[in-house]
Amino acid sequence: MDYKGIKCPVCDKPFTENDDIVVCPVCGAPYHRGCYKEKGVCIFTDLHESGKTWAPPVPPDAPNTASELKDKECPNCGTLNAHSALFCNICGTSLTGAPDEHRNTGYNTQQNPNNANNPNGYNNYNNPYGSYPPPQNNANYQSRGFGGVPFAFDPMGGANPAEFVADNVTYGDVSKVVQQNTAYYLSVFRNIKSFGRSKFNFSAFLFSGGWLLYRKQYKAGIITTTIMFLLYIANLMLSCFVVNPITTHVIDNAGVSSSDLSYVQLANLLSQYLMDNPSQYLLFCLPLLCSALMLGIMIFVGVRANRMYLNHCVHTVQEIKSVSNTETDLSAEYTARGGVNVVVTFCLLACYMILRWIPLFLT
To answer: How confident is residue 363, by pLDDT bands cut at 50, 70 and 90?
Structure first.
């Protein structure tokens, strides 16, 4: 049995690899040889009398970081971690102050005086603030072979946590609201503030109101989701109660089966019918109009999503700072109001699946 780390019951000092250890022949309790000679006998007489054997103490349970207060801020990326955390759960930086090689000193532009004269936010290696220098210039660098990572992951996306993005709001503050996928959003926010350029957000384009609710932009998300829901229901109802009856009427008047018609033949029959009945033309095109409006909203949200999210993060930080006076209150508010809402994602997914099944009951 390996007794390393277990404390001697006499001197209360943990055993090491080089210690001379003796074991009681009756109960199996370990001692330093000198401690056992000092006592002369095993001190666990109760185990001898009951016929039981000695067992090592049960190690304490690891703290549950999920229930802890997140008040330990990462010096590298600004993420709030659990109180007992030793390393950042986003970038892996040491939270105990050592070793220093784990700390991304590139964020501190004061450490390189040559950066002070560069107004574009780039260091001497032509990288944004927050990036690591080339590894070959580091005396402690060792090649990791094919298994190593050829670049340093920057959770701040090249943004300086101490740089202000708005009045009394830094990129570090914004990262506490974003929490998930900070590398992407902070990089985009930096381009918006520095160059006025944004990116098309495909997640927001595909999910629109769902993405807004997922990112806790509840007001815009509820409005967008409601509009998209009404347009979808209108499209569904018009298709079931207007387009389908017109199509069935045209096929019946032609005296043929729908299975015998090709798509081109059906399109020609519908075109001829709508030309003869102009009043039906607008009704027939209404579902297409609803689909076009839905697509327009999706494109608008995809184009404006990142700017909307930046404004949301800035306003959230300003509101939190205006009502919170202590670091504990700030940490609690960032945890509650920042990040994403996963529950709403599953709720919207369930609603979407229900809506997809509605046509089966209407036809």
So the answer is: low
